[in-house]
Design a protein that fits this description.
Elements: H1 3-9, E1 17-21, E2 27-31, E3 34-39, E4 52-56, E5 59-61, E6 67-69, E7 73-77
Parallel strand pairs: 1-3
Antiparallel strand pairs: 2-3, 4-7, 5-6
Length: 84
């Protein structure tokens, strides 16, 4: 994520979670005080026959009323069974 975007979002701090795609691995972390979730496309390098998956990242409130990330939920998408 470009640093100028991080700087613009820093003033929002604990009130937001930044989510973006096109990273080639699942990643949850912090940068400049921001919580960041990054995810690859669920179809990268998959075919119709392959099972693939994606994650749902639930967001909740902590004891202080600030946003927090709950445990991610993995959703498997079965591949198609192709018949000839």
């Amino acid at each position: 994520m470009p640093i100028h975007i991080v700087r613009q979002l820093q003033r929002l701090g604990a009130r937001i979670v930044v989510m973006y795609g096109h990273r080639h691995i699942d990643w949850i972390g912090h940068c400049g005080g921001l919580r960041i979730i990054s995810a690859p496309s669920p179809v990268m390098e998959s075919t119709d026959e392959d099972t693939t998956y994606f994650h749902i990242h639930p967001i909740g409130l902590d004891g202080n009323g600030e946003l927090t990330l709950l445990s991610p939920v993995r959703v498997d998408v079965p591949g198609a069974c192709l018949h000839s």
